[in-house]
Automatic annotation (TrEMBL):
Its cofactor is FAD. Pathway: Cofactor biosynthesis; NAD(+) biosynthesis; quinolinate from L-kynurenine: step 1/3. This is Kynurenine 3-monooxygenase. PANTHER family: KYNURENINE 3-MONOOXYGENASE. Catalyzes the hydroxylation of L-kynurenine (L-Kyn) to form 3-hydroxy-L-kynurenine (L-3OHKyn). Required for synthesis of quinolinic acid. The chain crosses the membrane at residues 461-483. It is found in: Mitochondrion outer membrane. Belongs to the aromatic-ring hydroxylase family. KMO subfamily. Pfam families: FAD_binding_3. InterPro entries: FAD-bd, FAD/NAD-bd_sf, Kynurenine_monooxygenase. It is an enzyme of class 1 (oxidoreductase). It catalyses: L-kynurenine + NADPH + O2 + H(+) = 3-hydroxy-L-kynurenine + NADP(+) + H2O. It comes from Humicola insolens. Its main location: mitochondrion.
Length: 509
């Protein structure tokens, strides 16, 4: 059986690049087709992203890189990260004083890591470029695919030009054994796959837009000491919660912070209603205390006017694969809102799980005669879809729910009490295996759907325990009061119910 297959990867974003590493490491011939002319050129930015977007990389993403078969990869990527140990909540007290309140992500001190999306992508490409069985085809846009006959068509953009600019674009036909669609939220692979399979598809734009701002590094700090360049704590994800909207800041490895305003469309319309931008600084002063001392008002206005105001999309689809010929990974399969910091991490995990399942089926079939690689792959892809779809849907939903947690719940005493109790159980009674939902999602590799099931069980147990804790003394107190004032209560209730004993009988029914 010829084990080397021709694998075409569409999209050289972070997830497509990692998928290419996995495939190349198995000895396949890997061809990567990417719409943009050159990923290292910062002027090329994919749809719905900005150049500077900062991501939180966490365990699932790192674990997938660990299993890529490239010993240098994790080290190479980690060198560009900044650990964030928790959230830093910013606010103003009733007396007008500003405060900062740290909320660690994890009782055991584990951190998530800030990294620049473009920088991470480049580090993956650095390693891919050294692999002899990998070929890049930049400025190639997938325009068509026949998944029954394993053919695809790409528009070749000469010197970055496209038909839209009035230049003739050439089209090429490409054969493949297996196509991996990693072409992001607006995936062309997914679009063409829909013509071959009955795909359920759901796309939602949530009522939130985002726009980027920047907190500059201290100019007085020496270049040799990165940490002294940050004007607020570098080891936190800073949040200014505003209930219906929020402003966040994530550290970058040049001492600056990339900040994002997440807010409903109506708020953007209000701020845009004065073209001079004059409404922006007072809005920040009112709802995000302290920000105008970190970003001067003229810079706030300039960023708001210059940077795009982008939507947030959430996509679910099923299946993620077709026969033996194609699979979707990353945002192409499950674009999600960014509030759990899991979009790319989940995409990386897709790649690890996909190749684990492909390897398993190859091992099962390797001793059998007359089994075509395509039959083995078809079984593997069917299993991949059945395993991965529920998990992709689960993290999509969790990401939507976390928007409320970040912009509002972090201020609630009930949220803080629950976090405190769960972390105490996790730390001091480890035999219970108790963990917060955030820790399970960000610091573990359990299936997302299991995380949801386990945290629902924990919630029920906690609610019952709290009801017991609060309810038992209340019940005891109630009984004591009833006994102590039985005569008075008896007199009072007799008119309505006959006797206290009768009331007790009624309640016991
Ligand atoms: P993309 O990054 O979209 O890459 C797709 C690639 O395919 C692009 O290079 C594109 O040019 C190419 N392409 C598209 N169409 C074609 C075509 N027809 N032919 C050829 N090539 C094509 N995730 C996290 O894990 N942690 C975070 O903290 C986090 N924060 C985020 C914050 C914001 C504001 C946003 C918007 C997203 C955030 N995400 C985060 C999500 C994360 O950015 C995405 O999940 C991740 O970039 C998806 O990677 P991808 O490779 O699947 O797709």
């Amino acid at each position: 059986m010829d084990k080397q297959q021709k694998i075409v990867i569409v999209g050289a974003g972070p997830v497509g690049s990692l998928a290419a590493l996995y495939a190349a490491n198995r000895g396949h011939k890997v061809d990567i087709y990417e719409l943009r002319s050159e990923l290292r050129d910062p002027s090329t930015t994919p749809l719905n992203f900005t150049k500077s977007i900062n991501l939180a990389l966490s365990e699932r993403g790192i674990n997938a890189m660990r299993h890529a078969g490239q010993p240098r990869l994790v080290e190479h990527v980690m060198a560009a990260t900044i650990p964030m140990r928790g959230r830093m909540i910013h606010g103003r007290r009733v007396n007008g004083d500003l405060y900062e309140e740290p909320q660690d992500y994890d009782a055991h001190g584990r951190c998530i890591l800030a990294i620049d999306r473009g920088g991470l992508n480049k580090r993956l490409l650095d390693i891919l470029e050294e692999m002899p069985n990998v070929t890049f085809h930049f400025a190639h846009k997938l325009t068509g695919a026949d998944f029954r006959n394993n053919k695809a068509w790409f528009e070749v953009r000469e010197n970055g030009a496209s038909q839209a600019r009035g230049q003739r674009a050439r089209e090429i036909e490409v054969d493949f054994d297996f196509m991996i669609g990693a072409d992001g939220a607006h995936s062309a692979v997914r679009y063409h796959m829909m013509k071959f399979t009955r795909m359920d598809y759901q796309q939602v734009y949530i009522d939130a837009m985002w726009c980027e701002f920047q907190i500059r590094p201290k100019t007085t700090a020496p270049d040799t000491d990165l940490m002294s360049k940050f004007v607020i704590s570098p080891n936190h994800l800073h949040i200014w919660p505003g209930k219906e909207f929020m402003f966040i800041a994530i550290p970058s490895d040049d001492g600056s912070f990339t900040c994002t305003l997440f807010a409903p469309g109506s708020l953007y319309e209000y701020l845009e209603s004065d073209p001079s931008g004059a409404l922006v600084p007072p809005f920040f002063d009112k709802y995000f205390p302290g920000v105008t001392s970190l970003i001067p008002p003229d810079e706030l206005i300039a960023s708001f006017q210059r940077n795009p105001h982008l939507p947030l999309i959430s996509i679910k689809c099923k299946p993620h694969s077709y026969g033996s010929s194609a699979v979707l990974v990353g945002d192409a399969a499950h674009a999600m809102v960014p509030f759990y910091g899991q979009g790319m991490n989940a995409g990386f995990e897709d790649v690890r799980i996909l190749f684990e399942i492909l390897d398993k089926h190859e091992r099962i079939d390797q001793e059998k005669e007359d089994v075509l690689p395509s039959s083995t792959r078809a079984r593997a892809l069917a299993e991949y879809t059945s395993v991965r779809v529920p998990d992709a849907h689960a993290i999509n939903d969790l990401a939507l729910q976390n928007y409320v947690e970040m912009r509002a719940s972090v201020l609630s005493p009930v949220y803080r009490l629950r976090k405190f109790l769960e972390e105490a159980l996790s730390k001091y009674v480890p035999s219970l295996g108790w963990q917060t939902k955030y820790a399970r999602v960000s610091f573990g590799n359990e299936r997302y759907s299991e995380v949801v099931a386990k945290t629902e069980r924990q919630s029920h147990l906690l609610a019952r325990a709290l009801a017991g804790l609060v309810g038992a003394p209340m019940l005891a107190g109630g009984i004591w009061l009833l006994m102590r004032y039985r005569r008075a209560v008896d007199v009072g209730l007799r008119a309505a119910f006959g006797s206290v004993d009768h009331v007790v009988e009624l309640l016991a029914m």
